[in-house]
Amino acid sequence: MPLDRFSAAWREEYVSSAFAGELDKESNECVFCVLGAEPVDESTGVLKKTAYSFVVLNAFPYGSGHLLVLPFRHVGSLEDLDDEEYQDFFFVLRDTVRALKGAYGPEGMNVGMNLGHAAGAGIPQHLHAHALPRWQGDTNFMTTIGETRVLPESLQSTWRKVHAHL
Fold first, then answer.
1. pTM of the predicted model, to two decimals?
2. 40, 54, 73, 98: which has the fewest C-beta neighbours closer than 10 Å?
3. Catalytic positions, written as ranges
4. Is residue 140 part of a domain?
5. Helix axes 83-104, 155-163, angle to 10 degrees
């Protein structure tokens, strides 16, 4: 059986600008490190902080409820975390999944990490995990054909829904 191929030429710009967005343009700092210093507040998008980790809204979500879990320390891989950071990171990720389930009642959940540019990480220098609630039929042609994502709620609404469950 031959392998079908689907052209995604519209992704060329993204792939060729793989480092875009890694640094805050004003301060030249890691955008995730900058966010980690912000308070838990709807205006910052930061939802929760612990001793070693924090949860933030994804500024460019794939769908409603798309959150990121990050260690405070600027490391690029799991093996760079010490044992306390590792445990805290995964406990916070688990709490984030629970909060998303409580806020949205999804039929499924995507949880994952892209480790390194080759794996699809947009900001590979700062480890982060994605948590994204999913429903049957929640994908459509808009992303593939129209290069557009349709989100039925604002980031502020997402923050309020999830924060109530964290």
1. 0.78
2. 98
3. 128
4. yes
5. 100
